[in-house]
Amino acid sequence: MCGIVGYIGDREAQDILIKGLSRLEYRGYDSSGVAVVNGHLEVRKKEGKIARLSDDLSNKTLEGKLGIGHTRWATHGAPNDTNAHPHVSTDGSFALVHNGIIENYTALRDMLSSRGYSFQSQTDTEVLVRLIEDVIKETGLSLGKAVRQALSQVQGTYGIALVTEKDPDMLIAARKGSPLILGVGDGEYFLGSDAAPIVEYTRKVVYLNDGELVIVRRKGFKVFSVDDVKLDKTIHELEWDLEQIEKGGYEHFMLKEIMEQPTALENAMRGRLYEEDPFVQLGGLMDSIHRLRNADRIILCACGTSWHAALVGEYLIEAWARIPVEVEYASEFRYRNPILREGDAVLVISQSGETADTLAAVREAQRQSIPVYGICNTVGSTIARETDAGVYLHAGPEIGVASTKAFTAQVTILAQLALKLAKEHQMADDELRQIVTELKAIPGKIAEVLENASCVEQIAKTFRYASNFLYLGRGANFPVALEGALKLKEISYIHAEGYPAAEMKHGPIALIDRFMPVVFIAMQDSTYEKVVSNIEEVVARDGVVIVVTDAEEGQLDELCEHVIRIPKTHEMLSPLLTVIPLQLLSYYIAVLRGCDVDQPRNLAKSVTVE
Ligand code: G6P
Fold first, then answer.
1. Could you tell me the distance, in angstroms and rounded to a whole number, from the CA of residue 608 to the centre of ligand 1?
2. Which of 41, 468, 497, 522 has the fewest CB atoms lying closer than 10 Å?
3. SS3 370
4. From atom 3 of ligand 1, which residue's Cα is the shortest distance away?
């Protein structure tokens, strides 16, 4: 949510900033801007996509080897040129970009107005700029120290970066709640909200923690704590490479990421899954398995698509390991004063590892002295660092705002965890072996589903103008129905609802008519006959049915207008296959409707504000 970049070194900053912003555009894309220092400070900002700012800059280049940039997802104030970042001090000497929310900005603004400061924008960020000015005016402190002092008066979250024309060899950044990474080059440094803008130039990075401020000069950098103590920081090596964050010939990141799922899942299982004892090895959780196995209750916490993966996880862990599981929206969990007991374990799931609500859930559990484990994709992310132990997805960077490969990789990790816990719970080796073999076969079966993408594209053509969709599934495919509906909503703006198939008769059946497509997941599992009865009920009311199934040709082809056939697998693993046509359906419908698939309106990939 909002992306920040920064550069200090010997190269021209403008291109690095613009390229970096484009790579962060999935974090927010309603306006953008840059500030570059070259003797004096120059700022350029534009409402709309980064391409508009880039066009503007190509007409009149900003020269300078120090700069910051920002791509915005509006919180306070409409997306327009004035509210876009950077925001500049009254004397025009320094500029600041900000990701996060200053919660006490109204009180600060009133205080600063009464002291004679004026404001051009409606943003909370400009208030922080004026506050820093005020501290400098009152105390005569240097910019770095004034920033620290101003931040001590701020409630809320921030990742900020500043440059000043008074010191062309200094880039300042600080964080609390919003991620920031410093890329360490040779005589040059790169700042980013995540690794995407940095990886092209260096793999060496320093992760800033909450409450830390860094002063970067061409000769080196110094990190300080809130109370001004100099800290030693470890330099980490990035795992990503450049190719992974580029489209690689695909029209959209989302399609690339859908197609990457066979490889992503192989990576999520590599070195972890065996057809012999120990069957599953999750290195990151090695010392915690016993604790999880003996938990009275496992609470899975997440947001969005990761929450849907958690719901599948509930089915898997309860079925195989027989441990009670509860699934919580992180945003509810954090404010509910949740009752946690000694025997509980909390497991959070987050692709980005930066979602503010999920991070708050981690901290709430820790506050109550409950162990917290994490399943994250982004290596070195805040959640990955703050949880007691965890597992990485190794799915590679996910850039499309609608999550696809992260979902299937999360389910793959949860399936492995459930099997590990089941082994501890005495599941018979033969059964374990059979499930492991099936799990290992999933990437190949996903590849088969993907080969059939054109069938889904045809169905998308038929339904591109629909205004409402209903998605129905049972058991572990109920969360897939939710996920299918979410994908469609997110990128095509069609209203869609997911329901457990049997709940249809308690409400959604009233909506059914010949204009509303109903997508059924009807795998030949323990509830197949019941789902077929639900299909009959829809057809009897003139509903139009699209069905995803592993059943042979026959009954369903007579009943349903559109049948998407997928391979058979173990009942509990079928979400890994059934979700694929639903991802494709939403993708093709969105493309046919001319929607911006990778950057749907109002959404952001990484939600670092509440
Ligand atoms: C946003 C994204 C979703 C994602 C959710 C949770 O809403 O648009 O795709 O599922 O955040 O993100 P996380 O990174 O915690 O999995």
1. 10
2. 468
3. coil
4. 304
**Rounded mean pLDDT of 438-447?**
98
352 lines ligand 1 (CB under 6 A): yes
| Helix, coil or strand: residue 83 | coil
Centre a 10 Å sphere on the Cβ of residue 379 and count the other Cβ atoms it contains: 18
Tell me which residue of 443, 430, 438, 485 sits closest to 316, measured CA to CA: 438
Residue 346: partners with Cβ closer than 8 Å, 6 or more residues away: 298, 299, 301, 340, 361, 362, 365, 370, 371, 372, 373
Ligand 1 within 6 A of 53 CB? no
| Ligand 1 atom closest to the CA of 604, numbered from 1 | 8
User: Is residue 566 within 8 Å of residue 549, measured between CB atoms?
Assistant: yes
For a substitution probing ligand 1, which of 331, 377, 482, 605 has the most ligand atoms within 8 Å of its CB? 605
- Residue 328 CA to ligand 1 center (angstroms) comes to 15
Q: Is 404's C-beta closer than 6 angstroms to any atom of ligand 1? A: no
- Cite the active site residues: 2, 605
pLDDT at 77: 84
Q: Taking Cα atoms as reference points, which of 321, 594, 319 lies closest to residue 464?
A: 594
Dist. CA 303–CA 157, nearest whole Å: 19
State the closest ligand 1 atom to the C-alpha of 355, by its place in the atom list counted from 1. Answer: 15
pTM of the model: 0.86
Q: Which residue has the tokens 């790169």?
A: 190
Taking 80 as the threshold, does the pLDDT of residue 470 lie above it? yes
User: Is the per-residue pLDDT at 610 higher than 80?
Assistant: no
In sign, the C-alpha dihedral spanning 290, 291, 297, 299 is negative
Cβ–ligand 1 distance for 605 under 6 Å, the answer: yes
**What's the rounded mean pLDDT across residues 121-144?**
96
Peptide bond into 168 cis (omega under 30): no
Ramachandran assignment for 426, one of left (phi > 0), alpha (psi -120 to 50 degrees), beta (any other): left
Residue 350, ligand 1, Cβ within 6 A: yes
Ligand 1 atom having least distance to the Cα of 352: 14
Q: What is the whole-number distance in angstroms between the Cα of residue 349 and the centre of ligand 1?
A: 10
Q: Is the pLDDT of residue 530 over 90?
A: yes
Report the separation in Å between the CA atom of 335 and the middle of ligand 1, taken as the mean of its atom positions: 19
Where residue 521 falls among pLDDT bands split at 50, 70, 90?
very high
Burial per residue of 102-129, b for 16 or more beta-carbon CB atoms within 10 angstroms, e otherwise: beebeebbebbeeeebeeebebbbbbbb
Q: Is the Cβ atom of 351 under 6 angstroms away from ligand 1?
A: yes
CA 78 – CA 364 distance, rounded (Å) = 33
Q: Nearest residue CA, atom 8 of ligand 1?
A: 605
Q: Does residue 27's CB lie within 6 angstroms of at least one atom of ligand 1? A: no
What tens digit of pLDDT does each residue of 240-273 get? Answer: 777 888 888 899 999 999 999 999 999 999 999 9
Single out the residue of 114, 65, 118 nearest to residue 89, CA to CA: 118
What is the reported pLDDT for 177? 87
Residue-wise pLDDT for 418-427, tens only, equals: 999 998 878 8
Length of the chain: 610
Which strands form 544-549's sheet, in the order they lie side by side?
Answer: 495-500, 468-473, 517-522, 544-549, 562-565
